[in-house]
Amino acid sequence: MEQNPPSPAEDSAAAAPSSGEAKPSLFPLFPLTASSSLQTTTTSSTPQWLSNTSFTTDISVINDAVASQLNREITQSPPQDDEDENRAQANPLPSSRYEILESSESDGGGRDRERKKRKKRKKRKCDSSVERGGFHGFGSRKSRVRAWADSEAKVAKDYYIDSHGDRDNLAFGCIYRMDIALYRPYNPLKLSGLHVRGLYWWNRSGSLLERDGDIDSLDAKMKSAGRYCSGKYMALERHKSFKRIRLVAPESSPVSMQDEFIPLSETDAGASHGAVDSDLVSKTSTSLEESWEDETLNKTREFNKLTREHPHDEKVWLAFAEFQDKVAGMQRQKGARLQTLEKKISILEKAVDLNPDNEEILLCLLKAYQMRDSSDVLIARWEKILLQHSGSYKLWREFLHTVQRNFSRFKVSEVRKMYAHAIEALSASCSKHSRQVLQATDPSSPDPVFVQLELGLVDIFLSLCRFEWQAGYRELATSLFQAEIEFSLFCPPLLLTEQSKHRLFEHFWNSGGARVGEEGALGWSAWLEKEEETRQKVMNDELSRENEGGGWTGWSEPWSKDNEGIVNVENETINDVVMEDIQDEEEYKEVEPEVDTENLLKMLGIDMNDGDGSEVNDTSTWIKWSKEESFRDCDQWMPVRRKSGTTSLANETHKTDEDEQLLRVVLYEDVNEYLFSLSTTEARLSLLSQFIDFYGGKMSQLFCSNSPTWADNILSLEDLPDSMLEKLKCIHEVLTKTQNSPTGYSFEYLSGSFSRNADFMKFIQNAVLLCLTVFPRNYMLEEAVLISEELYVTKMNSSGMVTPCRSLAKSLLKSDRQDVLLCGVYARREATYGNIDHARKVFDMALLSVEALPVELQSSAPLLYFWYAEVELASTANDRESSSRAIHILSCLGSGTKYNPFKSQASSLLLLRAHQGFKEKLRTVWSSWVRGIINDQSVALICSAALFEELTTGWDVGIEVLNQAFSMVLPERRSQGYQLEFLFNYYIKMLQRHQRQSSLMKVWESILHGLQIYPFSPELLKDVVEVGHYYTTSNKLRWILDDCCYKKPSVVLWLFALSYEMFKGGSHHRIRGLFEKALSNDGLCSSVLLWRCYIMFEMEIAHDPSAARRAFFRAIHSCPWSKRLWLDGFLKLNSVLTAKELSDLQEVMRDKELNLRTDIYEILLQES
Q: Mind telling me which PANTHER family this protein's record contains (predicted)?
């Protein structure tokens, strides 16, 4: 073994007391006696490692030795003060045995003086140590705290609590800001190489990083120097010439999976033991040592090279632009940041010149323009780019969001005009693309690009309808839906130009016929046929009358001029009498004093012409006004028909009502600019499904949570839909189950009023029933109709015991007896209401009739079998019988035998055939999935096979079937389509059913993996919070949610993260921080739902009305179109808003052209 030079520790050991004295013990809990300490070298029972001299040396001696060694390596320390040495010799360690002695007052005073002297000497010593830059206090502890107990100490118990611990140790839990361990960043300018001591010790001169003095001595020098977290060192870290050493893993050859272990290189092995070649390390560190200025130059050179080599790679240009944001973040001067912004804009302009059709680069450039230009200049730039890219759905969507959020320029009429331009441009692009597709390919197979164009057009139209609805023009929003559904779904089968279609539709709109959603509606095409039949019938009647009158009918005396004059005189006389009566009535009316609104207000003491006198100074009046306005908004959403040819001489009250009704009439000119034609089935179904969702109907998921349609729908929400509210309630129950005093906070106040309004449900039912003629045998629409009927009947009569939708379902089945999927939907609704026997009868009837159906209808049989099996397993009457019934049902599907109602358990032969049959069917499904053909029937077959294996073989085999299904889909396609998302949710449910056998860790890992594929799925986010609450710690769950919100921010993610903190009773500061992070995002700052949630948090939980007031003003500035948000200020913040402020808010609402239905003077008249 290599001989080391003698250390100070060995010198001190040589000068140790003789063997007769007691040596200190390493372990104070096991004291050694004097006799045992003398026999440590002779007895063999003592372990050898305890005989090492380093374990018998006092720890303070070692600490002093290390400190002196380090001081000698850096610079020679001055010697210790003689006074300190004498005191150390004169005051040896006291004995461990203490005796109680009586002390006089003089002795106590002497001890106090001695203690003060020691404090002064200690302070002078620390000050001198700071001035020398040495490490005199290294290894020392506070007074009255010994490092180790004496060897002869006889302890009374096995442990002690150090109540006077190290002030610089965070382990003692001190929160005082100065009680922080003295850590310092090393100085790379003075240190070369990666010497270990350089990471902890500093140069003695202290020119850049001066060591702080003792914490207790807060002198002026320490205050000026500051600690490592002070502004001085923060400025040093941000200095552009401050060099840092970056450790980068060396590039090595990839490790093959066949290797049994990862080989460790000699360099790494040497580094792990501290035996690194200094030259090699120095060379490596020098190559990686760079300042921020060096990094900026190197990155810029690298990006310049990449953009020259790959000019058409959008990722390179976007990364280059993002790097400019990082550079701007390190610059403190505003002028420097503006220069960096100009550089970023020039980079993106160059990228646009090379890639003129790239939408991502254009959007990035326009966002950079938004940071520099004024709103007028920015809108002009947008318009110029949109003229060149009029068919881009992404650009139009971002432009409309920009115009909507601009508070200074916002007016409803201006935004409405922009929507008209967008729909016109996109509709023209779709028509042009449609002509090209029809000429090039087979029209039976739609072009995917064309399908996406029409889906984008539908999304823009839905955004317009939401905008009109939220701005208060609810009748217009309803009319837009009616007009577009009629125009695109019920267009007459005539070869007409677009202009001819509009003229024909105008005739239908102004005719007074029932429109979609209204009672007795037939659809535009059917109405036109009926109109044509009526016209033909009238013409035939006229012709028949003329033909019948062809014979002689006797003499007829012709009218003479005298007779005509007599008739005219009689008519004139009658008219004169009527006019005289009318004039007499008018004269009588003129005699009566006219009492108008102005005179009535003067009678109340309000003068409208008196400036400030016309203001309402009572807050309660504004509260009543806002309640009345909210009530009328909820009640007045259906457009009113204009009655032609009616002139009424009613009184003043009726005239006022008529004027109000006229404001709710929607003319053809109001909807003409927003009509367009749809030719693809996907776009038509998307329009109808979003219409159902808009009015609060329930329908099976038609869109993947990753689709832009789903994201736009969630972003534009003002209220929480019922489906998401149910998931948040589940989280609330899980999180508050173990709390003694659960929080009373919930999201109930954010629930919408759609499902509570029976008129909405009737409107949806009428519309979907009419649309079933366009989409026959669509089980999703049929389910939506039955659920809307249930909600409508339940609201009208909640005492019924029969399934509310039974009569409607039977009438639909009578009209189409071959619709077996309707039977399945109806049976599931019966099972939901607990009528399991009736549901079984309906299922049995449908499955028995499947074989008699055409082949194209038999393909939907897997859905029926799967629904039936799930209904049986959901029945809690008898678990064993339910499992047997489910196995029997799935066995019939797998084996391919004719279905028979359940009588007894399935035989072993039938089960064997079912296993083999499912394998063959799955092979067929895999072949179609590889080609990209994924439909509802194939997903139902896979789920049925997995469920059958779970019930018969074991849950792990069922999981294997689902894993095999996922492996058949390319990774980039797994995040597309609602079918695969449904399949993954079913996979998670199966794991949760068997989490005791599979372990909760397996479930947790699968959920996290699914969250990477579907980060916006409410179902997966609910599972993350529920399972994470039991499986992992709160901090780990918060970290996961924060990471998801940082990488893929969305309204759904933030809602679940906020709900976890609120239901958990988290810190108000953290909840506010989450709100601020969410609303600081450019894409989420326009979420009315998040702003309303923030305001209610401040009012209901934090009880901070002033903070809620600030959040409210920020909210209306970010979302000026939301009338609901403005009214929240009147309803929720009336305690912190004055009457003058409420009056000003109403004036701003009128200035922004929001639709106000109630005049404040109506409330004043009611109060009088």
A: NUCLEAR EXOSOME REGULATOR NRDE2, TETRATRICOPEPTIDE-LIKE HELICAL
